[in-house]
Write a structure and sequence with these properties.
- By secondary structure, this protein is of the alpha/beta class.
- It is built from 18 helices and 18 strands.
- The strands form 4 sheets. It has a 6-stranded mixed β-sheet, with helices on both faces. Strands 14-15-16-12-17-18 form a 6-stranded mixed β-sheet, sandwiched between helices. A 3-stranded antiparallel β-sheet has the order 2-1-4, with no helix packed on it.
Length: 536
């Protein structure tokens, strides 16, 4: 289906990979992993023909169709969500023009013609629209949204529409770059179950460990300028990588001991006439050796100790009879909720159910129409959302912002924490005013950790983080002794931290006093998770 041979790519003198090889066959399930900047998206761009390698080749079966979901959505206009999902927004006419042009050309590019013909046939299939509606619904669209112009939708919803289009087209090879970024937990579980039954091959980049564990049968890591393949899912890859490191390190140490012994013999007896020839033989033996390089240890989560906040009262926050509406849209009516000290609560439910609204009510950042919000003794609330750029001083550097948040933090400690959250070397001297949205989110998260309140309210804290940084965050929050309420679509993150689940839907709140697996058990298990989440 797809073969990569002897691939080399450099950027600014830095070698991303060389002599890299990869083969994907029909039905394969492959995850491409590596730290940020390793070259994962570059591999995708080369496969798609958007970038040219310095050396090597990418060979694609001419009968293979490829569907690609980038991290950023395409520009949109008046086309509706349904038209994006069906691919009919100007696509049929364009494909017909492409087919005519190829037919009139002197020599036909078989792969290009086959792909254009397959897409055209799919688009005119009478059952295509029904399939598109089913996929849109699975990814969280309401029927009333099908006809909405895409320009009225957020970027995340536009991405869902483009993902729907790929799933409806059913290409032979599905290439997904961070497909779960814009999904809530409900849609993520639906997508996961959908892809488990997908007939084609899948090549994906993801920072969602649980998602890869469920779907992946092969992991390809970009490391030491190579593409290194491991059989199994992400957890299997971690185990095998650690074993390979230990084996290579042991082999390196044994060889160094052997070299040392040979060298010592040669140094001792080279001037002794009766043993000089043996000494020279030992030196030649060293020269003939193929040296085993000392392996680099696998990257591991960064562990740091942040200060524990002032102990809060037994009751952290209490809501009584809360009425909350946005205009005519009634979100909550008579809501009662108690958050106790030490709770680790995840809020789950379909998109638009009111999870973020509840978090904002708890944080006191929005006003409700009726009811009462009571704070417990010594309550100090910290609310983390993905849109907190206003809390940063645009003239401070990244390092200064962290140090001013926690005056007792040493600079070397701040550098270590920043490095673990993907701020490296000269990046810590960037002014916060020029940071990207993702960088601002990560910096605000660090400020949270180095000077934590005793009630943490967090909305999608793992967005923009790679897997190791998520693990670092988990380690930090596991040591947090006070109250945590959060929203997340990262199942691994939820499993590691949540001791209570609150399911929200249609203004109704139901508590499950147990972890995520307990919640799934009570609501029907993984296969029925979406039905349980969306039940009234």
């Amino acid at each position: 289906m797809l073969t990569i041979r002897d691939l080399k790519k450099t950027y600014g003198g830095r070698v991303l990979f060389e002599k890299a090889a990869l083969q994907i066959n029909y039905g394969d399930r492959v995850s491409l992993v590596g730290p940020n900047g390793a070259g994962k998206t570059t591999v995708f761009s080369i496969i798609m023909g958007n970038e040219v390698p310095d050396e090597g080749e990418v060979h694609r079966d001419p009968w293979t169709t490829i569907g690609f979901l980038p991290q950023e959505s395409e520009a949109v206009g008046s086309e509706t969500a349904l038209e994006i999902a069906t691919g009919r927004a100007g696509q049929i006419e364009e494909l017909e023009r492409t087919l005519r042009a190829l037919e009139q050309a002197g020599t036909v590019d078989v792969a290009e013609y086959y792909e254009a013909q397959a897409k055209h046939d799919a688009l005119v299939d009478p059952g295509f629209e029904a399939r598109a509606k089913k996929v849109l619904s699975g990814l969280g669209f309401r029927e009333s949204d099908f006809g909405r112009p895409a320009r009225e939708l957020s970027g995340g919803w536009v991405m869902r529409a483009h993902l729907s289009r790929l799933l409806v087209m059913e290409p032979d090879l599905l290439m997904l770059d961070e497909p779960t970024n814009h999904l809530d937990l409900v849609s993520l579980l639906w997508l996961q179950n959908y892809l488990l039954n997908y007939k084609g091959a899948i090549l994906m980049i993801s920072h969602d460990r649980e998602f890869m564990d469920e779907l992946t049968r092969q992991v390809v890591e970009i490391a030491s300028s190579k593409l290194i393949s491991y059989a199994g899912n992400y957890t299997d890859y971690l185990r095998q990588r650690e074993e390979n490191y230990e084996n290579q390190l042991a082999a390196h140490k044994n060889q160094q001991k052997e070299i040392q012994a040979l060298q010592e013999f040669a140094d001792r007896f080279r001037s002794v006439s009766s043993k000089a020839s043996q000494a020279m033989s030992k030196l030649k033996q060293i020269e003939r050796m193929e040296l085993i390089e000392k392996p680099q240890p696998p990257r591991k989560p960064f562990r740091f100790q942040f200060p524990q906040p002032v102990r809060g009262g037994h009751r952290s926050i209490q809501l009584e009879g809360i009425h909350m509406a946005y205009g005519s849209n009634q979100v909550y009516q008579g809501l009662d909720l108690m958050v106790e000290r030490g709770d680790r609560t995840v809020l789950v439910g379909p998109n638009g159910a009111g999870k973020s609204t509840l978090l904002k009510i708890l944080a006191g950042v929005i006003e409700f129409q009726k009811g009462e919000r009571k704070l417990g003794h010594n309550a100090r609330i910290g609310y983390y959302s993905q849109h907190r750029s206003a809390t940063l001083d645009p003239f401070n550097t990244v390092l200064e912002e962290v140090l001013r948040s926690a005056p007792t933090l040493r600079e070397d400690e701040a550098r270590g924490i920043l490095g673990s959250f993907m701020f490296r070397k000269e990046e810590i001297y960037k002014k916060t005013g020029v940071l990207s949205g993702g960088e601002k989110s990560r910096l605000n998260l660090i400020k949270f950790l180095v000077d934590p309140p005793n009630i943490l309210l967090m909305d999608e804290p793992t967005t923009h983080l790679d897997i190791l940084t998520v693990e670092s965050l988990i380690i930090a929050l596991e040591r947090f002794e006070e109250t945590l309420v959060f929203i997340s679509h990262d199942v691994h993150f939820i499993r590691k931290l949540a001791s209570k689940v609150i399911h929200i839907n249609s203004g109704q709140v139901r508590e499950y006093s147990g972890g995520y697996d307990y919640y799934l058990e009570k609501t029907g298990g993984v296969a029925d998770a979406r039905a349980a989440l969306t039940a009234a």
